UniProtKB/TrEMBL annotation:
Gene source species: Alistipes shahii WAL 8301
UniProt KW keywords: Iron, Iron-sulfur, Metal-binding
The protein's name in its UniProt record: 4Fe-4S ferredoxin-type domain-containing protein
SUPFAM superfamilies registered for this protein in UniProt: 4Fe-4S ferredoxins
Molecular function terms from GO: iron-sulfur cluster binding; metal ion binding
Domain of life assignment: Bacteria
Entry annotated with the keyword Iron-sulfur: yes
Keyword Iron-sulfur on entry: yes
4Fe-4S ferredoxin-type domain sequence ranges: 33-62
Amino acid sequence: MALTVDALLCPQNHRCPLIPICPAGAISQEGNSLPRIDPGKCIECGKCVKRCGMQAVYKAKEHGQTL
Ligand code: SF4
């Protein structure tokens, strides 16, 4: 199951603080744009989901979507 970042919840105006806490190095960001989670690297530990202050990271299935 893939994790993704909700573009409506993420303000996209700062460096994502989740990048350094991801143990798999799965989160990347161009400038202050919407962070991207690489499904090939993510081990689904859930740290980013818990730590995002905007609660912008979610499992796609929870929104009824598939990636
Ligand atoms: S769930 Fe864990 S491994 Fe996956 S992107 Fe979030 S912090 Fe990184």
